[in-house]
Structure formats: structure tokens, C-alpha cells
Amino acid sequence: MEKKIITISREFGAGGRTIGHIVADKLGIPFYDGKLVEDIAKESGFAPKFVEEHSEHSPSGSVFSYAFAPQGVPGIMNGLSTADYLWNAQCSVILELAEKGPCVIVGRNADYILKDRPDALHVYLSADNEYRAKRIVELYGETDKTPEQRLSEKDKRRRVNYQHYTGRTWGQSQNYDICLRTSTIGIEESAQIIIDTVLKSREK
Amino acid sequence: MEKKIITISREFGAGGRTIGHIVADKLGIPFYDGKLVEDIAKESGFAPKFVEEHSEHSPSGSVFSYAFAPQGVPGIMNGLSTADYLWNAQCSVILELAEKGPCVIVGRNADYILKDRPDALHVYLSADNEYRAKRIVELYGETDKTPEQRLSEKDKRRRVNYQHYTGRTWGQSQNYDICLRTSTIGIEESAQIIIDTVLKSREK
């Protein structure tokens, strides 16, 4: 079956955004990263209706009606945290984006959210720590933390968030169609493997 | 760096042997699967000396000298089981094979045994259960167990063995350079991705 939706899960610094952009550009399809999905979820008027339909994604679904409290209500809403509210909104946005047509989605656990779509290709990108440390300094500059600390903290946040919302283990290869260690394979080469796989899927 | 040694870890029925053969044939290098490595370990005169050198691979290394008890001594040898003895012999055989020159090694936790070789490319192959069930019946025929039982039992054995001897989680993508779901990617296509990666590594 033709793969139209490409989800890219990635370790911090492994090149997910860059590779996602190359794939989207070469295939001529829209690119969405986590930040963009989050912005859409926050601003979109259509999110709440999908939130209701897809409430099984919420770990505290039983108090789900509180998600419809006014946006101004901060923090915990009778058991549904703003994090959970946003997660639900993101699920609905990602499901909606995939419904709209071909695209590349980086991050936001889109692999899990779109796991039941046979036209989705799920990719996971990792890289050696040394390679990632060098890359994040080049891309995002120095901070008061060491690159190793920044990697460790961000990896942990992604891993814990993924496990919390999906019940799966972060980086378990059986959840993906393709996993690549970009420090071995290369950024351009990794993008090409994904593009070739999508193009070949059109022949099947 | 040029990748000369290709290790292929795989779920039962995911096409590891077939893909390994294609890769070895097209690259013109020797192919070793788990059975062959085991045979060499059993028959080889050079194994014991490596066993001694690489005893850190044994989970019960402290009683390692008992590994040199005559082959006829069955079962547990004062704490070092025959399984552990064979594991050590296999480690030595795999390290030796890699030292000899380019090759493809399927199974036997070769990814872990050769994890410190920068010229090794580590591949993991998975596939959907339905695809694997169909494939093992086509390849190996029916047995008195259902294909699902056979998959489950063999997967479990490999997973437990891997965890026992390596301390790693079976199928964790960060331990591999490339992981492919062959039921999505295809057998020939998976082989081609591996071959292309090896060929490209020669240019770097």
C-alpha cells in the first residue's frame, strides 16, 4: 500500500527535523513538527470536537468533560491536567492532518497516534551521543548546561512522555517500519532511504 | 568508515536468513548463520583459547576454568552450564570470523559480540505477526503447533537469551544502525538498503 503519511520519531540531535524537511521537500508534501502541531492544537477551533471523539488517548478519560472548560482555566482541571488536555488536542490535530492528505510529521508521538493507518510509514532516528552533542551545539548554540546534560534531559522527557501516553517503550524497533542510526548512515542518506521506501510503496 | 562486517538480528520468520544470503551474495562475502557458528564452535580446535580470553562474556565467569573440563562432561559444570560454555565458544568464533575479513553473520547475538568494532554494521529485522506466520509455514511447513505458537516460543527464546547474555533489550533500535520491518519494506528492498549502506560507507 502507498505510504502517504510519514511520522518521524527521534532522539534529540539525531537530525529528525532536518531529515523530515528533506523528505517533505523532495516528495512535495507538507511538513509538521511538534511545535507546529502544538500551535495548531492551541489555536484551532476544530480541535475540541476531535478531542471528544478520541478521548481514549487520554490517560484520565473519565473526567474528560472537564477538557471543555474555558481555555482560561489553568493547571489541573479536576483530574485532567493541561498536559493531558493538550495531548488530546494534539491527537485530534494529528489525526486530522493525516486525514487531509500526505505529510511528514516529526515528533509528538505521531507514530502511536497514527498506528492504525496502513498508509503511514513510521520512522525512528537515533544517533551516537558524541554525534548528537556536537550537532546540538552547532545547531542551537551553547547553554549553561553541558551538551550531554541537554541530551540526557530531553531524551528522558521524550521517553517518559511517550511511555506515559502510549504504554510503549521509546525506541522499540518493532513499533517502526524503519529505524536508522543517523551517525552511521548520514543525514542525506537517511532521508533518501525514507524517500525511496515511499516511492517504492507506490508501485505495490 | 567502511562497514565490512554485517550482523543481522531478526525475529523468527522476518526473512533474516534470506536477506543475509542476498547481501552476502551481492557483496561477494561469506555468510554465517547461527547454526553454522554453533557448529564451528563445537568442532573448532581454536575456540577454547578464545573462550579463555573472552570470559567476560560469561555470566558465570568466576568458575570459568571448569569450561575446560572434557567435552564429555554433560550438563552443569560446577556452575558453568553447557549453554554458557557454548555461548563463550560462539563469542570466540564470531570474534575470530570478524577478524578474518568481511562477512554477514545472522543471529547468535553477533550485534552485541561485535559492538566495539567500528567496521560492523548492525541490522535488526522485524515483521508483522501475520506476515511471519504465513512465511514460516511456507518455508518450514506445518507442525503440530500453530504458527502463532511457534513464533511466540521462538521469539521468547531469542529475547530471553539475548537479555541474559547481553543485558540489553531485544529489538531496542538504539543498538542497531538499521532496523527494518520487512513486511512493510519487502525482502529484496531490505537487502538493497543494507547493500547500499555498505557501498556508501566505502566512500566515507
Task: Please explain how this structure is put together.
Chain A is of the alpha/beta class and 204 residues long. Chain A has a single domain, classed as Rossmann fold, CATH 3.40.50.300. Chain A has nine helices and five strands, in the order βαβαααβαβααβαα. Chain A has helices at residues 16-27, 34-43, 47-53, 82-100, 110-113, 129-140, 147-166, 182-185, 187-201; strands at residues 5-10, 31-32, 103-106, 120-126, 178-181. The first copy, chain A, has a five-stranded parallel β-sheet, with helices on both faces. In chain A, helix 6 (129-140) packs across helix 7 (147-166). The radius of gyration of chain A is 17 Å and the shape is globular. In chain A, 42% of the residues are buried. Chain A binds chain B through residues 3, 11, 121, 124, 126, 169, 171-174, 176-181, 184-186, 189, 193, 196-197, 200, 204, and chain B through 3, 11, 121, 124, 126, 169, 171-174, 176-181, 184-186, 189, 193, 196-197, 200, 204.
How many β-strand runs of chain A? 5
Total of DSSP H or I helical runs spanning 4+ residues of chain A: 9
Regions of chain A with pLDDT < 50 over 5+ consecutive residues? 54-76
Dominant shape of chain A: globular
Measure the end-to-end span of chain A: 6 Å
Largest contact between protein chains? A-B, 25 and 25 residues
Q: Name the structural class of chain A.
A: alpha/beta
Q: CATH superfamily membership of chain A, which one?
A: P-loop containing nucleotide triphosphate hydrolases
The largest sheet of chain A is:
5 strands, parallel
- Please identify the oligomeric state: homodimer
Name of the CATH class of chain A: Alpha Beta
The residue-averaged pLDDT of chain A reads 85
CATH topology of chain A: Rossmann fold
With strands numbered from the N-terminus, the spatial order across the biggest sheet of chain A is 2-3-1-4-5
DSSP helix fraction of chain A: 40-55%
Share in β-strands of chain A: 5-15%
Give the name of the CATH architecture of chain A. Answer: 3-Layer(aba) Sandwich
